[in-house]
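Minimal example, chain plus 4'-deoxy-4'-aminopyridoxal-5'-phosphate.
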Amino acid sequence: MALVPFDDRDGWIWLDGQFVAWRDAKVHVLTHGLHYASAVFEGERMYGGEIFELTAHTQRLFNSAELLDFEIPFTVAEIDQACRDTCARNGLTDAYVRPIAWRGSEMIGVSAQDTKIHVAIAVWDWPSYFSPAERAKGVRMCWAKYKRPSPETEPVHAKATGLYMICTISKHAAEKAGYTDAMMLDYRGYIAESTGSNVFFVQDGVIHSPTPDCFLNGITRQTVIKLARDKGLTVVERHIKPEELAGFTECFVVGTAAEVTPVSQIGEYNFKPDAISLGLMDDYARLVRRELVAA
Ligand code: PMP
């Protein structure tokens, strides 16, 4: 399938409060966000006309901006509405939604106090992050070269563009070596997350997930923990050492884009998608489509 570049598509992008034709939604090369990574973003999904956990995502966007010391010049309700309007304007009821806020071009330097804050929202059709065939078998991961830094090193709870530098490098290395993704450890050597999703493990019917103290506590992660507990499953959040992976039988990753995706391999450890992963994959798919009512 030919790749359609993201800057050469039909449709409408919401930019600073107005719709502009997709191809005209541009920034200047001297944009602070581009040079100094002063940009924060979100990834959301609309299912059957409703964006799942829309306000939680918008609030995280605002929190991320605050962590980067800037203020989004709209209200949470205005951005919520703009996300819905952008889907409608593009005629989409099932879509990936990408809001982004960044510092403009008034200043280029480390200090950027007087830059204008811009916000854009783009939406597109994006059925599955991992291919359906990969998801059924479970994705294969290697270990990432980089570690998730300490909260003393970066604002770890911001969904900020700069924090993805090590994710892209790690995911590329994984793909070049024939894997789908990479599992990142944290600065202490504990299991952290993949390059774009949170991770869960299963041992003797109990679910274990790394404590999100130096990476995003994803909205999907929080949703899946609640789904699991509502089913009567025990979920333990704790620090997990890589060598403990030998004792886990199932593994799955979760995120807005990844949804719930079973994992068959991380480095030297193998897992089999089984009842708990597949059950939660199905529950999550039904919940986001409002076919399952949360308890
Ligand atoms: N970790 C990283 C690095 C991510 O990019 C994402 C996707 N935003 C997640 C975790 C999962 O977050 P969420 O479930 O809120 O999409």
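DSSP finds seven helices and 16 strands in the chain. The longest helix spans residues 54-67.
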